[in-house]
Design goal:
Rossmann fold; Dihydrodipicolinate Reductase, domain 2; TIM Barrel; eight-stranded parallel beta sheet; 20 helices; 24 strands
Length: 655
């Protein structure tokens, strides 16, 4: 396999030697920012083709795979460019500067059907596989504590990229990722709590040495040490109920004998396990790429795509704990035009009275967004727009206003307010009281939302709850006042009974006022046992025939039943009490079984079938989705291409 290398730094020199020792690879080309640097590198390593730019190397059709040896802040950009050029990719760790970038690049790699692996070379050595095997076999009983350390004193000047905030440097990113990736591999799970402390350089603005703590759902606790300005013993220690394991050389296992030490509680001396490395660890890494090229990713213990995502999420949490934010994560660095909708996604649209543009049938929820993680919000919303989505759901209560602020900041950075349909909600119960469906509270919440969103109007404003004790005319009059003032373009109710909706519109028509234009109850293939939140209603239980008769637009929240159809839940699994309370029933599990069966016939998942069920109703429906990842967004969009017949709908719903 012919390799090209982007970058001529220290790690590039190291990997060249790995390619030379590999059984499968040959170095063909190097690309640098200047011809001089490329020639210097080429002379040292006898590289045939030397390019004065990274783009020039990617244009070479003879280069099959590319090793990205660039500063951390450039990884995402060049992974995407490599993927678009059809090159297979080994990217130096960390995969990207943050989790949001990792999601973006993995989606591009998937779209362009190329190989990608994050270059944690120790994961390709048999020592790591043997360590995982020993732990899983219970050789030290149940694991309780893990300690992993990796720290150097680079003695580098402050302009070195490892000490550069703008280059996404620091100890956590440079070597801390080894410790997190090792611990997560040993545990076989993602941490549910991450803590940390660090020395942040006054001039570098990155962590120069740091400690971290990870807690896992099964009770395992890990202690991490990393740094780039202090030498520390590099080792991994694992303590279990029946002994402990020490790996003296976890990060650079080599050719020949490598030791794992097992100290059993009943033994006076440790047992030494010898693991033979058949080649240099970087050569093994290069051969791993070649071996699994057709699969597009290598299996564990090498870094799978999911593993890289989990590691980036852990590194993000560690950086947040110590207070390191990169220049590239600041709003000014995230400003760019919104992406253009792709031509290969069949987004569909429908009209809602009062809104001057078509509304996408999939509506993006924003509950998880916050300005504190603006890269995540931008990545998710950009991807949604690239699918043709133009409608975003938010609410005054989400995150105490954080969701609205994040959506508003994204619109400001993209300059696309005129192209976006905002669904806002207000008058939900909160800390100020359980009964807030009043003209005063509506007006207060609306003004807050407009300010947070940075806009002078909301396209569709929904009352988040109803209070039957409040005369419906007072609410219609209040909403019309804001409608006439241009603060809202259309309005409706969320969690309103069809009786109250009729009463509201009867009042509007009798008084020559604008009516409710839409409703947003729960509606899904699964039928709720109890609502997740007090005061919520489901049209799956009551009102569906009214929506059909009136052809009234319905915006379905929890359109996929909070993940019930994902395959994560089974009748005998009660580990999530909230799911059990709201969704577990014999009928719903039968609906799940039928969705799986129909999905197999149509080549999609049960979750996609469940969403297609909402979209295929014989009245105007819009599905509110709440994906946490780009992958979840993409798979949700598959429902747009699924056609269900009236017979399918009845069969799925046990009719």
């Amino acid at each position: 396999m012919t390799w090209g290398i982007l970058g001529t730094g220290l790690i590039a020199h190291t990997f060249v030697r790995g390619i030379a020792a590999s059984a499968t690879g040959a170095l063909l080309a190097v690309g640098s920012r200047t011809q001089e640097a490329a020639n210097r590198f080429g002379d040292e390593h006898v590289v045939e083709r030397r390019y004065p730019s990274y783009d020039a190397l990617l244009a070479d059709p003879a280069v099959q795979a590319v090793y990205i040896a660039l500063p951390n802040n450039l990884h995402a950009e060049w992974i995407v460019k490599c993927a678009k050029a059809g090159k297979h990719i080994l990217c130096e760790k960390p995969l990207t500067a943050n989790y949001a970038e990792a999601m973006v690049v993995l989606e591009e790699v998937r779209r362009h059907d190329v190989f990608l692996m994050e270059a944690f070379m120790y994961r390709c050595h048999p020592q790591t596989a043997r360590l995982k095997e020993l732990v899983d076999d219970g050789v030290i009983g149940d694991v309780r504590l893990i300690q992993a350390s990796f720290s150097h004193n680079y003695r580098a000047p402050h302009e070195n990229i490892r000490l550069s905030n703008s280059a996404a440097g620091g100890g956590i990113m440079d070597v801390g990722g080894y410790t997190t990736s090792m611990v997560r591999l040993i545990v076989g799970a993602e941490p549910d709590h991450v803590t940390g402390a660090a020395h942040i350089g006054a001039s570098t603005r990155v962590d120069e040495w740091a400690s971290g703590g990870l807690h896992f759902p099964n009770g395992i606790v890990a202690s991490l040490i990393c740094g780039i300005q202090v030498p520390v013993e590099s080792a991994v220690h694992i303590w279990g109920t029946e002994g402990h394991i020490t790996v003296p050389n976890p990060w650079f296992p080599g050719k020949g004998a490598n030791r794992i030490l097992i100290q059993k509680s009943e033994d006076s001396a440790p047992t030494e396990i010898i693991v033979e490395g058949e080649n240099d660890v970087y050569a093994l890494e290069a051969d791993t790429v070649a071996r699994y090229l057709a699969d597009r990713q290598a299996p564990h213990p090498a870094m799978t795509w999911a593993d890289s995502l989990g590691n980036m999420a852990t590194l993000d949490a560690w950086r947040r704990a110590v207070g390191v934010t990169f220049d590239g994560e600041q709003p000014v660095a995230l400003r760019h035009p919104a992406p253009r909708p792709r031509s290969d996604v069949p987004m569909t649209y429908a009209r809602i009275l009062g809104i001057d543009r078509p509304v996408s049938r999939l509506i993006m929820g924003s509950m998880i967004y916050s300005p504190r993680d603006l890269p995540l919000a931008c990545a998710m919303l950009d991807y949604f727009v690239s699918l043709g989505g133009n409608t975003i759901d938010t609410a005054h209560i989400y995150g105490g206003g954080e969701a609205e602020r994040a959506v508003g900041e994204w619109m400001r950075l993209r300059g696309n307010r005129a192209e976006v349909v905002i669904v806002g909600k207000g008058a939900a119960p909160d800390a100020r009281g359980p009964r807030r469906v009043t003209p005063t509270d509506i007006t207060s919440d609306l003004r807050d939302s407009l300010q947070r969103l940075g806009t002078d109007y909301i396209d569709l404003y929904l009352l988040h709850r109803d209070d039957p004790a409040v005369p419906v005319g007072e609410l219609v009059e209040c909403l019309n006042e804001h409608y006439r003032a241009g603060r809202i373009r259309a309005f409706g109710g969320s969690n309103w009974t069809v009786g109250r909706l009729e009463a509201a519109n009867d009042y509007a028509w009798e008084h020559g006022l604008a009516p409710f234009a839409a409703s947003s109850p729960n509606f899904s293939l699964a039928v709720m046992n109890e609502p997740p939140w007090p005061g919520c209603l489901s049209a799956s239980i009551d009102g569906k025939e009214w929506y059909i008769a009136h052809q009234f637009p319905l915006l379905a929240w929890s359109s996929q039943a909070q993940g019930f159809f994902t395959g994560r839940y089974a009748p005998d699994d009660h580990s999530n009490p909230e799911m059990v309370r709201c969704w577990y029933s014999a009928d719903n599990f039968e609906r799940l079984a039928r969705a799986r069966e129909l999905g197999r016939r149509k080549g999609v998942s049960a979750n996609v079938i469940a969403l297609a069920y909402v979209l295929a109703q014989p009245f105007p429906t819009f599905a509110l989705i709440g994906p946490h990842t780009i992958e979840e967004t993409r798979t949700s969009a598959e429902a747009l291409g699924v056609t269900l017949t009236p017979e399918d709908l009845r069969w799925l719903n046990l009719e």
